[in-house]
Here is the input.
Amino acid sequence: MCKLPSVQRPYGYSTGLTGESAYLWALFLMNEADMNDNHLEYDTWRSMVESLTPKQGKAIPAIVHYAKLEEAIEKYGVC
Here is the structure.
């Protein structure tokens, strides 16, 4: 059973993530950094989570490009 968020890419794109997928990965990575007491990484991911958090009146991005997020996903791999 895989406990990692899924990697969802927008239709027709080989890079970038859907806004929802990027949000879930950033949230996962923020929690991982918090459990490992890595304050710098926690702050980095928290900032990303805050910018991607769904809010009333704000559309979820169709595509998100964050190099650091892509690198972290590659490090964890996918199930």
Observations:
- The chain has one domain: 19-76.
- The mean pLDDT is 91.
